[in-house]
């Protein structure tokens, strides 16, 4: 790992040289949302890098993605891969972590997802340590920290008016920045970096996620618990669409003229149709079973399979829930349920 | 896990419809056979009874079907219940039409465990498909390696029984003890009458060292398993093949999980012991 001190002007020069090979995306305000959009005018670089309204999964698993094109008579199939290279600049550590969570599913050795794999290989992340907590984020309550690398290729620690500190954990990215930096230090781990700037700190209220994992198997049959949790849920699915770790998808055919394409699109375990079978049988017939699935997937199955929670604590599901359901309260409620 | 035939697991391999035949008198069930457009694909398409394919019709979509043919047969056979958008399109296929096949997918019945034991195959309705493949395959290759073989199979009425030519053949095969039943008494039926769980209860099954494989509608499975447990058959000796709504077939799209297992990738064959303590979402 290399710790670089770079003047802002030089940082931007390095980005310009990167643009010969990569498309660079930064958080940008669009109406009420902050979204990653391509860096064109460097005047847009205000170095705030606000947390985006949408997670970065869109860059590795787009909301809609063509798997292949076909002719209706079944005679020809042509795959469609996205191999463009990009850098996401100003990603929050919680979001950087979710790429690792998605890798568990899509790069699982029994079957590798070729569409995801190609996008993932070409997506680089330069994240930024948080210097304050958002209204609803809670990575610290899950035992994580808002200034960790979390699998990103580089992280910006502190920004003054003139310069910034950049920790780089990727040789390719380093090769672009090295000639522009004022000072380069070799470090063995991110813990060694002493000067991290103003970092987000607060008295953390830990969530009992480890204990909940142990308790969840015994709660599977607690019908009332799941009914209570799901009582005010309108099953709009926004929590899953905006969750950076949720990846469930649907596959459908779309036709035009003599041909068409097979498309995959986000789906949600909160939807009745998600598990509805053609016979009419539905193994998760009500919101109670669907909520149970969502909670168990993130806090029991994911840790069981991969030793990580299926949640990074970004808080988007809390921000946008129209019924004001707060996953932190759900975790505490389930943990204390008798 | 045996490899799926294409490098890209989402891309189907082209196959041609070789035959389409109504299987049930009410014409809701149809049996189709397929050959691959490139014949050499069949050599790579190694499957065992219990595995399934995703069959797609370009522009209509894709659905999973258990393979009903004996793995040693050249053609791939499935039986399809006409019930939704894709299955309607499949029922409208003609000989010579081109379809897409992905697979073989999922796991298979643990045949190696059955060696040296008795085996009871229990089925209801059109879930019999992969069990017919299993029975054919076992009689051909494992006849001398198994103890007693029982077949208990029921349908609503005689016209809904699958593979009736085969059933006749199996009923006359001394290697097998068969119990073929229909739900209600009807004319021209001189076989058993009654629901599968009740027939299982009454059947004289040698429970010593017996494995059971059970496939059918969820209600049949739920009612039959207690009868087997009552007879003293162990939870790890009861196997079932589960069905769920599926899309990707390779454990990625998320919808078919039961606990941390995916029916498509870790199943569809599970032992009752595997399923214990998990949400009963099947």
Short description:
The complex is a heterodimer of chains A (338) and B (282). Chain A is 29% helix and 22% strand.
How would you portray this structure in words?
- Chain A has 338 residues and is α+β, with helices and mostly antiparallel strands.
- In chain A, 29% of the residues lie in helices and 22% in strands.
- Chain A is globular.
- In chain A, a hairpin with a 2-residue loop joins strand 11 and strand 12.
- Chain A has 2 domains: 178 residues, no CATH class; 128 residues, no CATH class.
- The N and C termini of chain A lie far apart (48 Å).
- An 8-stranded mixed beta sheet of chain A has the order 3-2-6-7-8-9-1-10. In chain A, strands 5-4-12-11 form a 4-stranded antiparallel beta sheet, with no helix packed on it.
- Chain B is an alpha/beta fold and 282 residues long.
- Chain B has 2 domains: 93 residues, Beta Barrel (Elongation Factor Tu (Ef-tu), domain 3), CATH 2.40.30; 131 residues, Nucleotide-binding domain of ferredoxin-NADP reductase (FNR) module (Rossmann fold, 3-Layer(aba) Sandwich), CATH 3.40.50.80.
- In chain B, 22% of the residues lie in helices and 30% in strands.
- Chain B contains 8 helices and 15 strands.
- Chain B has a 7-stranded mixed beta sheet, sandwiched between helices. A 6-stranded antiparallel beta sheet of chain B has the order 4-3-6-1-2-5. Chain B has a two-stranded antiparallel ribbon with strand order 13-14.
- In chain B, strand 1 and strand 2 form a beta hairpin.
- In chain B, helix 6 packs parallel to helix 7.
- The two termini of chain B are 24 Å apart.
Q: CATH class of the largest domain in chain B, please? A: Alpha Beta
Question: Mean pLDDT of chain B, rounded to whole units?
Answer: 93
Order of helices and strands of chain B: EEHEEEHEHEHEHEEHEHEEEEH
Terminal Cα separation of chain B, in Å? 24 Å
Number of helices of chain A: 10
Class of secondary structure makeup of chain A: alpha+beta
Give me the number of helical elements of chain B: 8
Strand order of the largest sheet of chain A: 3-2-6-7-8-9-1-10
**Cα-atom Rg of chain B, whole angstroms?**
18 Å
Shape of chain A: globular
What is the helix fraction of residues of chain B, given as a range?
10-25%
CATH topology of the largest domain in chain B: Rossmann fold
Fraction in beta strands of chain A: 15-25%
**How many independent structural domains of chain B?**
2
Provide the low-confidence segments of chain B as ranges.
none
What is the overall shape of chain B? globular
What order do the SSEs of chain A take from the amino end to the carboxyl end, as H and E?
Answer: EHEEEEEHHEEEHEHHHEEHHH
The overall number of domains of chain A is 2
